């Protein structure tokens, strides 16, 4: 049945590989179970309810994604989007979390309509190839930066913005050991090297703690509200958006437009850019139009997943770049996503164990290794074409420095336009690309 459903025979894969890939993706994504409730609690939402909703929404969305698209991609509430939700819309603009969820529902519904009408496919098809490559490589660096930052290897620096952390600290040292082990395993072509690296690093972390090195929360049991891991869940945020429409539509019309546009903008380009890069890293073939095999169904799958998330009471869901860790251990079909979803559902019960073992220092080894692998996409860039090189540079650098996939894409498009005009190739660009460029420029200078 699984062979028929996911074309396992055609892909020359096996259930064991997909299972390991799904588990690896889940472990790399599992930090969302602690971060999302903590962040949305700042918006006034109950942490226990958000934890339940986060795990349930991610679990269902991953399974739906796997069944509809056959892509090995996990979905969960996006980190950048929950920050927009909490700190800009709720705390900054004074809306209640119910009204903010209502805005997310409307934006996600518009996104769904854009997807099923084929407009999203059209937009993706006209994106210049080198920009697609830059998005993938930029996300790889972004992913590695998340890992290094979470482990304390890269820290905030008042003089230089970022700097090197204390490498002798327990989290940083554990992450460094894990990264080196994973690199060696991969070079030696050890099967499931990224997953094995995760497990070995977790074991070393247990040894560190048992030896008294890093006890007290440095490695295990990070700063997560106790109620999240108490097995006591409430469901007050389910369908919480329904009571927020009245407040939302009573806000200033210009504010309402900017709120909806900002959510839609983030949802569209964050998840679309991620799906493109994941399709590239998975080696899916392209057709004569430069469209990846099955990408249309992947778009529908993540749009449906987004609707599921807001109905269950979370900030916008998106395809996760951490899915590259599962792809890195051999995941190539939707069965990987289904297994990832199952693990999210299991996490509702086993959250204390998951959150205590696979923390940021442990998952850093997988994130950095995936970042290294995704950089390989840049070999296909036209390096003798300065228009492409300038756009690639802007996309990658700004994605990393602004800590935003969407802003990196925006800077890349605007740079590409300016360079194309200077090179006399502006007329070769699709009219819809110019529409996107104008939208990106407006967003960069006037967006939320």
Observed structural traits:
448 residues; mainly alpha; two-stranded antiparallel sheet; two-stranded antiparallel ribbon; 20 helices; 3% strand
Q: What can you see in these coordinates?
A:
The protein is mostly helical and 448 residues long. It has 20 helices and 4 strands. The chain has helices at residues 2-6, 8-11, 15-29, 32-41, 47-69, 79-90, 97-116, 119-126, 129-150, 170-187, 193-210, 245-249, 253-281, 295-312, 323-328, 334-357, 360-374, 386-401, 405-422, 431-446, and strands at 75-77, 154-157, 161-164, 317-319. A hairpin with a 3-residue loop joins strand 2 (154-157) and strand 3 (161-164). Helix 3 crosses helix 16 (334-357) and helix 9 packs antiparallel against helix 17. The longest helix is centred in the middle third of the chain and has 29 residues, at 253-281. The protein is globular. The protein starts with a helix and ends with a helix. Mean pLDDT is 83; it is low at 215-224.
Low-confidence stretches: 215-224
Structural class: mainly alpha
The biggest beta sheet reads: 2 strands, antiparallel
Mean pLDDT: 83
Ends distance: 48 Å
The Rg value, from CA coordinates, equals 21 Å
Overall form: globular
Provide the fold topology.
Elements: H1 2-6, H2 8-11, H3 15-29, H4 32-41, H5 47-69, E1 75-77, H6 79-90, H7 97-116, H8 119-126, H9 129-150, E2 154-157, E3 161-164, H10 170-187, H11 193-210, H12 245-249, H13 253-281, H14 295-312, E4 317-319, H15 323-328, H16 334-357, H17 360-374, H18 386-401, H19 405-422, H20 431-446
Antiparallel strand pairs: 1-4, 2-3
Helix pairs in contact: 3-16, 4-5, 4-6, 5-14, 5-16, 6-13, 7-13, 7-14, 9-13, 9-17, 9-18, 9-19, 10-11, 10-17, 11-17, 13-14, 18-19, 19-20
């Amino acid at each position: 049945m699984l062979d028929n459903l996911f074309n396992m025979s055609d892909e020359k894969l096996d259930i064991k590989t997909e299972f390991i890939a799904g588990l690896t993706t889940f472990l790399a994504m599992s930090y969302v179970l602690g971060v999302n409730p903590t962040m949305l609690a700042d918006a006034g939402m109950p942490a226990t309810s958000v934890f339940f909703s986060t795990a349930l929404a991610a679990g269902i969305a991953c399974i739906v994604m796997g069944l509809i698209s056959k892509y090995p991609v996990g979905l969960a509430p996006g980190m950048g989007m929950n920050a927009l939700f909490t700190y800009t819309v709720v705390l900054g603009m004074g809306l209640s979390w119910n009204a903010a969820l209502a805005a997310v529902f409307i934006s996600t519904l518009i996104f769904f309509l854009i997807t099923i009408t084929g407009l999203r496919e059209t937009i993706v098809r006209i994106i210049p190839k080198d920009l697609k490559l830059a998005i993938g490589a930029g996300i790889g660096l972004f992913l590695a930066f998340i890992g290094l930052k979470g482990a304390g290897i890269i820290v905030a620096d008042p003089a230089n913005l970022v700097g090197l952390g204390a490498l002798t600290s327990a989290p940083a040292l554990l992450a460094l050991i894990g990264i080196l082990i994973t690199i060696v395993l991969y070079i030696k072509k050890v099967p499931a090297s990224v997953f094995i690296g995760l497990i070995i690093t977790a074991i070393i972390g247990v040894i560190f703690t048992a030896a008294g090195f890093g006890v007290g929360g440095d490695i295990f049991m990070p700063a997560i509200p106790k109620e999240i891991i108490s097995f006591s869940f409430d469901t007050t945020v389910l369908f919480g958006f329904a009571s927020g429409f009245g407040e939302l539509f009573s806000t200033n019309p210009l504010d309402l437009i900017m709120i909806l546009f900002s959510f839609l903008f983030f949802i569209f380009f964050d998840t679309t850019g991620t799906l493109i890069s994941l399709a590239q890293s998975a080696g899916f073939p392209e057709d004569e139009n430069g469209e990846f095999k099955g990408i249309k169904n992947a778009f529908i799958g993540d749009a449906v997943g987004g609707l599921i998330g807001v109905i269950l009471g979370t900030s916008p869901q998106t395809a996760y770049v951490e899915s590259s860790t599962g792809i890195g251990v051999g995941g190539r079909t939707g069965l990987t996503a289904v297994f990832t979803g199952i693990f999210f559902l299991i996490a509702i019960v086993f959250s204390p164990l998951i959150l205590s073992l696979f923390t940021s220092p442990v998952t850093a080894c997988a994130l950095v290794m995936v970042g290294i692998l995704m950089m390989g996409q840049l070999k296909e860039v036209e390096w003798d074409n300065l228009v492409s090189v300038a756009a690639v540079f802007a996309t990658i650098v700004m994605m990393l420095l602004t800590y935003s996939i969407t802003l990196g894409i925006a800077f890349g498009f605007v740079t590409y336009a300016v360079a194309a005009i200077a090179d006399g190739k502006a007329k070769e660009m699709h009219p819809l690309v110019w529409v996107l460029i104008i939208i990106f420029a407006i967003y960069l200078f006037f967006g939320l």
